[in-house]
Predict the 3D structure of the following.
Amino acid sequence: MTKGFKYRIYPNKEQTQQLNQMLGNARFVYNWALDKRIKEYQSEKKSISAFSIMMDLTQLKKQPEYDWLNLSVAQSLQQSVVNMDKAFTRFFKQKKGFPKFKSKHIGTHHVGFPQNTKVDFETGKISLPKLGWIKTKISRTFEGKIKTSTIEKTPTGKFFISITVELPNVKVKQKPISKVNAVGIDTGIKTFAVLSDGTEIENPKHLKSNLQRLKVLQRRASKKQKGSANRRKANLKVALLHEKISNQRMDFLHKTTTAIAKQYDTVACENLNISGMMKNHHLAQSIADLGLGRFYTLLAYKMAENGGNYLEIGRFAPSSKMCECGAINKDLKLSDREWVCPVCGRINKRDFLASRNILKFALTEQNKLTAGTVGRACGGVGVSRTNEAGTVSERSLRT
Ligand SMILES: [Zn+2]
């Protein structure tokens, strides 16, 4: 199994200059390769392979006016070609998101280092080809073989390194799927999550106030004259707060999913149509802010890491509409927080009922699979989550 580790790095003055050059070169090669590919397609109606672009790249680097490309690690530039190629393949498979040229002024910039990253946990330093040892804030250590790494520079000028590590093969004991220590989870807008054992997880309060502040700053920035120094300053303030919010959100999601994965053997969730929900304007902001997609991805991953089970029910299951007596409330509106069952008279709290039903449906589904001829897939953790484009997203949990 591979796992990613991310650290903030503090390059010295010289290393910062080198890194800026490398980031610029990576962006240049990406755009150059993308342009090549588009032109080839327009004139010849065929795709030029990444391999053939790399051959051209080798020639380009030999020309004196492109000598600055040699300040980069050769594999980094090849990685840019590979990334462009991947963006293209994604576009052809999903029929959306045509690859864009990368701008110097917008977004986070990346440069890959496919080989030769070294980490010294004792001195708190990371070594990369051509750059040497860079001061690093080591937040956690790891054991295993380093595969690749990527350096990113945020819009606020901070540098981070993400390292992919092949972890040593430790066999985790697979816990059985059963009612024992199992919980259903319903995520929502008002309360972040309600669990079928009655646990309620609230959204962090600072998130909301920071989001309101972000709106104010964004409006302020948009009123400043384009290209002016004041506009740049205002945009930097926006980027800094944005960074803070996204860190707070990730921190909350990590803590929450770790706690759940430690406490329960089996969790059941609903396969939500997140990008479908985003089109609903009122919900959009809240859902985007809650990072629900990430919550489920992290949870599935951490359950697998602990030998637990992550089950998912279909998005059209009537989880909040079905009373324990079996009656279904077809008229339930999104604004109804609770409803009285006309058949048995129970008062159903929407989120709590949903979490209980999610668990019930998921376990019933599992029993059918185990009893039938289908057989249980990979111990129940081979989760496949289909996204809007119809492809299975990043949930191949075990390698
Ligand atoms: Zn009822």
About this structure: Residues 323, 325, 327, 341, 343-344, 346 surround zinc ion (CB under 6 Å). The chain has nine helices and 14 strands.
